[in-house]
Design goal:
25% strand; Rossmann fold; alpha/beta; 446 residues
């Protein structure tokens, strides 16, 4: 696929890195020559110094032959303009990064689509949805719903209280015959393992599980976790993520939002009718105690600074908060933050890149998610008529070793996959895969 990416910022660079390993023909446009030189020295792609809103520069990028044009600069106006120009110049499909909710209103979205923008990606909105998901399913490190919750994927840390610690997959299967779930991956230290029958669960492992919603609480008990209801929460940072989260959750729980900027705090107090807005520094222990941090069930740190978010979550955890969520935009900090017990983490560029990535695949992909603390990706694909995946039971199909099928959605029913499962055309299949297996998985589903 020929792909033109406009913008060498965090999202564009990460997306280019992901796609460069998948045999795509990639061109990256940005006005920052030094930034492009650095990227060019590490990735197999073509870079062009220029403006994506310039017709001349778009023509130089040969956008008329692009299968996909992705505009992810920091400027919403530039992204919209360049996407419209790219479409008029011949790009088959366009995606624009936005930061304005009004563009997602159905009539506005349809209008812009009629002009030439096929898809929109709003990283802050994706991040807010992620936070809301984490708070609705306490006890998990990561959580993702498929087909409106018919199947769930979630990550749970194995604690010393876990009854499955030091047991193999086969032994756990014998213990849990009546529980319909499947462990699809294990994150151990810096390594992601696609488990087979002989693999053991160890203390500290982050285990990714696919199950039906009603089984989740029982699976959590196996790993030494207990579900608890979040009634009180504190948000640090009046960013767009913080605001969207507060708007969604303010009616459902007792919510406080801390913002260090006084003028911004006053504006937020008017806008957020269902949350108490406090002007103050969330790193101030006395302020946190004064605002009742020790009584909070959850603490969410979404300032623009990764270090502040990590530190604040560690402080909140030390003061007794069960559930902490940090926005960590520096990818290099993610494994470190996980290892020191920060809790759940969100990263806007990973979320945005995952959302866009599915449009670069040949198979029919419904959803795609790059997991924050793992090298792997979870994809929801639709099985096609006469595709290899429908040609026999899963145990008889030569499925890649570095990928796993967790379950399928057939009509209104979620089904956990086993070796005897026969996938049918039209099934929505949840696949957990390492980057090395993505192309092989695509071929099996085409």
């Amino acid at each position: 696929m020929k792909i033109v990416i406009a913008g060498a910022g965090a999202v564009g660079t990460h997306l280019a890195k992901m796609l460069s390993h998948q045999d795509h023909d990639i061109i990256l446009i940005d006005s920052d020559e030094e930034k492009l030189k650095l990227i060019d020295s590490h990735l197999d792609l073509l870079t062009i110094v220029g403006s994506s809103s310039s017709i001349k520069d778009l023509k130089e990028a040969n956008v008329k032959k692009a299968d996909l044009f992705i505009a992810v600069t920091q400027s919403e106006e530039t992204n919209i303009t360049s996407s419209l120009l790219a479409k008029k110049l011949g790009a088959k499909r366009t995606i624009a990064r936005i930061n304005n909710q009004e563009y997602l209103v159905p009539e506005n979205k349809d209008f812009l689509k009629s002009l030439g923008i096929d898809e929109f990606v709003y990283p802050e909105r994706l991040a807010a949805k992620e936070v809301i998901n984490y708070l609705s399913r306490s006890g998990t490190r990561q959580m993702y719903e498929f087909s409106g919750g018919k199947l769930l994927l979630y990550g749970i840390k194995i604690s010393s209280k876990s009854v499955i610690m030091d047991k193999t997959m086969v032994e756990v299967a014998e213990m849990t015959k009546n529980l319909d779930f499947r462990a699809v991956a294990i994150k151990r230290g810096d390594t992601t393992i696609i488990p087979r029958g002989h693999n053991r669960f160890s203390r500290g492992d982050l285990v990714f599980v696919v199950s039906k919603p009603e089984i989740m609480e029982k699976v959590m008990l196996l790993t030494g976790k207990q579900k608890y209801k979040i009634k009180k929460a504190m948000i640090l940072g009046g960013s767009r993520i913080g605001q969207k989260t507060a708007m969604e959750l303010g009616k459902k729980m007792n919510l406080k939002l801390l913002e260090i900027d006084k003028e911004k705090s006053l504006k937020l107090a008017d806008r957020l009718q269902d949350a108490l807005v406090i002007n103050g520094d969330g790193r101030d222990l006395d302020l946190l105690r004064e605002e009742g941090i020790q009584k909070m069930d959850a603490f969410v740190a979404v300032t623009g600074n990764s270090e502040t978010n990590i530190l604040a979550c560690l402080l909140a955890s030390k003061m007794g908060v069960k559930r902490t969520i940090a926005e960590v935009e520096n990818i290099d900090y993610i494994d470190l933050a996980d290892s020191i017990g920060v809790g759940a983490m969100i990263n806007k560029k990973l979320l945005a890149a995952s959302y866009i990535y599915r449009f670069t695949m040949d198979a029919d992909v419904q959803h795609c998610k790059w997991l924050t603390v793992s090298d792997a990706e979870v994809i929801e694909l639709v099985a096609q008529s006469n595709s290899k995946i429908t040609q026999g039971k899963l145990k008889d199909i030569d499925f890649p070793e570095d990928a796993n099928i967790g379950g399928i959605i057939r009509g209104d029913e979620g089904i956990i996959a086993t070796g005897d499962t026969q996938i049918q055309a039209g099934d929505q299949v949840v696949v957990f895969t390492m980057p090395s297996a993505i192309k092989k998985v695509e071929k099996i589903f085409k």
